[in-house]
Structures are given as C-alpha cells and as structure tokens.
UniProtKB/TrEMBL annotation:
Family of the protein in this entry: Belongs to the oxygen-dependent FAD-linked oxidoreductase family.
Cross-referenced SUPFAM superfamilies: FAD-binding/transporter-associated domain-like
Highest taxon of the lineage: Eukaryota
Domain named FAD linked oxidase N-terminal: residues: 37-151
Family annotation (InterPro entries): FAD-bd_PCMH-like_sf, FAD-bd_PCMH_sub2, FAD-linked_Oxidoreductase, Oxid_FAD_bind_N
Statement: the UniProt record of this protein carries the keyword Flavoprotein: yes
Alphabetical keyword list: FAD, Flavoprotein, Oxidoreductase
Protein known as: FAD linked oxidase N-terminal domain-containing protein
Species annotation: Collybiopsis luxurians FD-317 M1
Keyword Oxidoreductase: yes
GO molecular function: flavin adenine dinucleotide binding; oxidoreductase activity
Length: 483
C-alpha cells in the first residue's frame, strides 16, 4: 500500500479516509463490507490498472488483492479482502480516451463501457436511443462481476497479470475470449466490455406479490412458461418463495418482463391471466426497461444485511420446489425473530433455447456445460440475509444444509443438473468443475497457463471462482496459435 500511495497518491485510500469508508459501505452485503483491506486503490483507466497489477505481481512485492466493481457478489471475500491485502476498486474507471464511461458506436449497433459502471449507467445511455443490451435485472449490479459469469460479449479489453493490455474477441486472442465467458478471476482484470445493442421500446414489466398459498399455481405456470418459451422468447418470469420479516409471513415475489408493451401476452401468460391466483400487490405496467430495473432494486429486501447465496440447477418440477421450501421453513423458522433474518428460495428458467443460444446467435461457443439437448432447466438460488454477526454461523450452516438437501434430493428424484450459475453461487461451491465439461475445464486451465504462466493471479487474486491448475493439465495438449 505504501508503494501504491507513492504512485497513486490521490487514488489510494486508507481506513481513516472518507472515500475508503464510502467504498466499503456500498457493498451489497455486510459480509463483504466487514472485511477491511489495508488500503483501497481506484484506477482511473486501463493504464492505471496495468500499473497496479504489474506492481502487485512483481516478484519483490507479491501482494494479495481483491477486485471490485458493483460489489454485489454476496459471499464474504468475493470482491474484498482483509488486512492481508488491498482492494482494487474499479468504480472510477473510464474508457481509454479518458472522456466517457459508456459510449455508443457511430452506427449504434454496439455499446462500449468501462468495467467500472453499473447496469443503470449503460441503460441510461441506451434508453434515449430506444436501445438496450443484455444486462442485469437490477440497475445497481456492476457490469464487471455480472459479465464474467455469462455470455453475450463482442470484445473484452483485459489487463493480464504483468500489466499487458490486450483485446480478446472472435478474431484476436479468441481462445481467451472463449474462456472469459466463464472467466471469473482467472485471466486478468477486464477494463472494457463491448456488447451488441438491440432496439427496445417500452415493455410490460414489474413485480407481483402473491400469497404463499398460490405457490402450486405459480410453479405450474412457470413449468408451462419454461416449456412455451420457444414460442415467444421475449419474456422473463422468475419467482421467489420468501420469508417476509415485515409482514411476518411467507410471500411469493414474482419478477416479470415482456419486451413489448403488451400485458399478459399470449401464449406465455394465458394460464396466469385466467388464474384464480390474484396478486396481493400488483406493480406490473407499461414502462421503460430502466424503470423496471430500478423498481426491482427497491423491492429487493436483502440489501445491506450479511448475506450468503448458494445456487444449483434442476429440471422444472413443482413438487420439488415446494419440498425445498418446506425444508427451508424447518431450518430457518427457529431464527425468524433474530434481527433482519430473511431468506428465500428463488428460481428462474433456463429454457433449452437459451442453453443453445450462444452458438445459435453466432457469438461463438462458451465453456459452459449447458447444451440445448439438456432440455429445460431451472436455476435455483438460496438467498439468506441477517444483521447480527453472532448469527453468521447458524445462517451459513443452515443455507449449506438446505443446499445439500436439495442436491441429494434432486439426484434421488432424477432432476439434478451439475451446472452452477456463477453469478448466484458462493465461493464454497465447485463452480468451475461443475459448470463445464472436463474437456472444457482442462482447456480453460491450459489457457490460463498460457496467459499467466506462473499462476500468479491464482495465487494473489482472492475471490471469484478459481480453476484448479494442477493434475488435470497433465498430458493435455491444446493447440494455441496466438499471443
Ligand atoms: C440484488 C442483486 C440482484 C442480482 N441480479 C442479477 C441478475 O438479474 N442476473 C444475474 O445474472 N445476476 C444477478 N445478480 C448476481 C450478480 O450478477 C453477481 O453477483 C455479479 O458478480 C455482481 O457483479 P458486481 O460487479 O456487482 O460484483 P463484484 O462483487 O464487484 O464482483 C464480483 C466478482 O467479479 C470480479 N470482478 C468484478 N469486476 C471485474 C473485472 N472488471 N475484471 C475481472 N473480475 C472482476 C470480482 O473480483 C468478484 O470476484 C444479482 C445480485 C444481487 C445482489
């Protein structure tokens, strides 16, 4: 930190300084904010990131560090670190020309943004042009963490372990481009993303809250919705069975969007429009997508608590999700009167059309084990929040027990799928091993060795999901033509 303070005197912050405290206080989860790095440094552009990374990884320094964008990954240590290291906070990062943080191409077909922005910053530039891109449902989520757990990128500008800045895309460093789609913290710090834009006018979207007694109706709706998605892929429907500490009752929170200004479009919403399940609170309406993402943020009950999220994937099944909720009730109900305790089991569909979407839409392959042949799936996330550090142990243990139960039971019922969606997972989960095929994982390991031969990032960069670099690479030969 003293070296950083010498090189970046106005961009390095210590715990007594307001900027350090502000950055710490804007993590989504108090489990992350309670870690206190020796210092925090705010690079302003890719060349600052390059200099910082080169300093940290030099043999004579070898400093541990974490990297943070929106700070929304919930588990402790995902994007923050304790006294043993420092945190690179990308929130002040601008594009290489030093002018803008988000820039639309002249033909408006692509948008480039610094890795330091949040989705709302991108949507606000696209909205006046009636455009959008594929991003987070909540405007507050950072682009950095979000996009290193998914697909849809045209180009990554990335700083490698030694400070070299390169661009990875379909024609340059295409092996790295492939790996970065599930790259997490293995390859380098991304400083800019380029993405395709799509025309987007007003949408029908928002939230509806239902009584917990309507769970079977809504889950049956989600089964049909997932199956029918092929007929009209402009739709999203996700739901949470949640404990609501304010009302002291269970509730169902649904997030719904249709990318046209049409309420209850047919055929995906047919059953819900005519259903006996009527929302207790109805916030659906014709809106701009930006407003929908801001509303979702306001409705989210978890912010600022200590948090633990865990995720798994299974085949759509109403009874399984009801049983999972019942198991959660058994585990968490004894703690409902503890400060700020909130938990939910949420699902969102991965229709088979999505699993095969990458190759269908010519964005190239990705390392994930999701394939169209797998059929329809649901990604499930257990979210837990609480306020008292004294509850850390019991809340973490209960969340893990619930996941263990779900995985065992899904296997027994023939519903289990190994994929773990990185954006919803916890550091304790084997995300890389489970979400790729053995061959893809080996290839990711080889690519990491090519771009970081000594595994410096694996050793020094804390947080994210790491690729194991040892045994599995033995005897593996992968033809690489670049670098
Ligand atoms: C309220 C809420 C709503 C959410 N909604 C969605 C959703 O709709 N869809 C979805 O898919 N996910 C969603 N998520 C999950 C979210 O996408 C992930 O937690 C994501 O990692 C957050 O990105 P971030 O930049 O805010 O997080 P951070 O905590 O800043 O970073 C997350 C990880 O990415 C790494 N990282 C960050 N920036 C970079 C970079 N530039 N280069 C390399 N590594 C980097 C960090 O080191 C860390 O390991 C949501 C999370 C929350 C809390």
């Amino acid at each position: 930190c003293s070296l950083l303070a010498a090189s970046f005197p106005s961009q390095t912050f210590f715990s007594s300084q307001g900027t350090y405290q502000d950055q710490q206080s804007t993590y989504y989860s108090a489990s992350q904010a309670s870690l206190t790095p020796t210092c925090r440094v705010s690079p302003k552009g890719p060349s600052d990131v390059a200099k910082i990374l080169a300093m940290a990884t030099q043999d004579e320094n070898r400093c541990q560090f974490a990297v943070r964008t929106g700070g929304h990954m919930a588990w402790s240590g995902a994007s923050n670190i304790g006294k043993e290291g420092f945190t690179i906070d990308l929130q002040e990062l601008v594009l290489e020309d030093g002018q803008a943080r988000v820039r639309l191409s002249e033909d408006k077909a692509a948008v480039s943004f610094s890795a330091g922005v949040r989705w709302r910053d991108v949507y606000r530039v696209l909205k006046p042009e009636n455009l959008t891109t594929v991003g987070g449902r909540i405007g507050d989520v950072g682009v950095g963490g979000f996009l290193l757990g998914g697909d849809y990128i045209l180009n990554y500008e990335i700083v490698l372990f030694n400070g070299t800045i390169i661009n990875a895309n379909g024609s340059s460093h295409s092996d790295l481009y492939w790996a970065l789609k599930l790259g997490s913290t293995n390859y380098g710090i991304v400083t800019r993303f380029d993405m395709v834009t799509y025309p987007q006018g007003p949408v029908w979207g928002g939230s509806q809250f239902f009584s917990i007694h309507d769970a079977p109706v809504l889950l049956n709706h989600l089964v049909a919705f997932t199956k029918n998605f092929d007929k009209d892929p402009k739709a999203f429907f996700g739901l949470s069975l949640a404990w609501n500490p304010q009302a002291k009752d269970y509730i169902i929170w649904t997030l719904q969007t249709y990318l046209k200004p049409v309420p209850y479009p047919s055929p995906l919403w047919d059953d819900l429009r005519d259903s006996t399940a009527k929302p207790l609170i109805d916030m659906m309406g014709i809106k701009n997508l930006v407003d929908v993402t801001e509303e979702f943020k306001e409705a989210d009950p978890g912010k600022h608590g200590r948090s633990r999220w865990l995720s798994m994937t299974y085949k759509p099944d109403v009874k399984f999700h009801l049983d999972l909720h019942a198991k959660g009730v058994e585990l968490f109900e004894p703690y409902h009167d503890h400060p700020g305790v909130h938990w939910a089991v949420s699902i969102q569909p991965i229709p088979k059309k999505f699993s095969g979407a990458s190759s269908v839409q010519k964005r190239g392959e990705n390392p994930s084990c999701l394939k169209q042949e797998t059929g329809d799936l649901w990604v499930m996330v257990i979210t837990t929040d609480w306020l008292d550090p004294a509850d850390d142990k019991v809340m973490n243990t209960n969340a893990e027990t619930l996941l263990e139960w779900a995985e065992d039971e899904a296997r027994k019922r023939g519903l289990f799928h190994p994929f773990i969606y990185p954006n919803y997972a916890s550091g304790s989960q084997s995300v890389m091993e489970r979400s790729t095929s053995p061959e893809a994982l080996r290839k990711m390991g080889v690519i990491s060795r090519m771009y970081d031969p000594k595994g410096v990032l694996n050793e020094l960069w804390r947080g994210g999901f790491k690729i194991s670099r040892r045994g599995e690479l033995e005897g593996w030969v992968y033809d690489r033509v670049e670098l």
